[in-house]
Amino acid sequence: MIFLKTDDEIELLRAANLLVAGTLAEIARMIKPGVTTLDIDRLAETYIRDHGAVPTFKGFPNPYGADFPCSVCTSVNNVVVHGVPDDKPLQEGDIVSVDCGTKLNGYCGDSCYTFSVGEISEEARRLLKATKEALYKGIAQALPGRRIGDISHAVQTHVESQGYGVLRELVGHGIGREMHEDPQVPNYGKAGNGKVIKNGLCIAIEPMVTQGARDIVLLDDKWSVATRDGLLGAHFEHTIAVHHGKVDILSSFDEIERIENSNH
Ligand code: MG
Ligand code: MG
Predict the structure, then answer these.
(1) Average pLDDT along the chain, 264 residues, taken 10 residues at a time
(2) What is the largest CA-CA distance in the chain?
(3) Residue 83 DSSP class
(4) Which ligand is nearest to the CA of 171?
């Protein structure tokens, strides 16, 4: 069942998502060769709790009885999503997706950004650009009267036009009091299919893209979803609200992008 949100609820969701944006911006400031993904996790958890929120990923259960041990997912290189932070230092040329969820005053934030560690290859840069573009192509379809399939189709079409694969097994989702609500928002599909988009719809759109084939494997930690061929994976996610006939992006990459641009 889809819970459409009031304007007041959308403002609560915005606050939770701006806290995610602030957390990811702190991470943007610290990421460099030698930093570990556990360092990133510790910074994120402290920042979130210092702002009166909880990291929603911590303790999140999975079907294998393995609760997620950390506050953010850190997916390095061939890991596409759900990577578990560890003590291995990041290296020049790595890419790392940091997916972050918060609950603030009863409402959830969820956003992900794939960061570059130092200078990355031209191929990696092209993958990140295409994945982020696909996210915004999807967001542009989130208007009252259109359908969820219009979002899915826009994401898939852009990803595949660039020669990349997009995961079918994991999807975007409604968001509100719960991190994962109805409807599911797949990153593939047919235009004109699926639920009609209405004012008050709040969803996370999150293309998960592979440099090569879209086949995936689950690693031994029972969380990390990696490419079968070992090539790179990328993941960008925004939480958005549809209201007053328009799309409103509740999370933000503005500060991250400002930091990235000042580093180059
Ligand atoms: Mg997420
Ligand atoms: Mg999500």
Answers:
(1) 97 98 98 98 98 97 95 98 98 98 98 98 98 98 98 98 98 98 98 98 98 98 98 98 98 98 85
(2) 48
(3) P
(4) 2
The model's pTM: 0.98
* Ligand 1 centroid distance, CA of 147 (Å): 22
CATH number, residue 78: 3.90.230.10
Cβ(96)–Cβ(90) below 8 Å: yes
Distance 196 CA to ligand 1 centre (A): 23
Between CA 7 and CA 15 the distance in angstroms is 13
Does 1 map to a domain? no
Distance 89 CA to ligand 1 centre (A): 23
Counting ligands in written order, the one closest to the CA of 57 is: 1
Distance (angstroms) between ligand 1 centre and the Cα of 188 equals 18
Q: Look at residue 20 and tell me if it is in a domain.
A: yes
In a domain, 139, yes or no: yes
Domain that holds residue 32: 7-263
CA of 81 from ligand 1 middle (Å) equals: 9
Q: What is the DSSP letter of 32?
A: S
Those residues whose beta carbon sits under 5 angstroms from the ion ligand 1 are 99, 110, 112, 237
- How many domains does one find in the chain? 1
Domain contains 114 = yes
| 39/12 Cα distance (integer angstroms) | 29
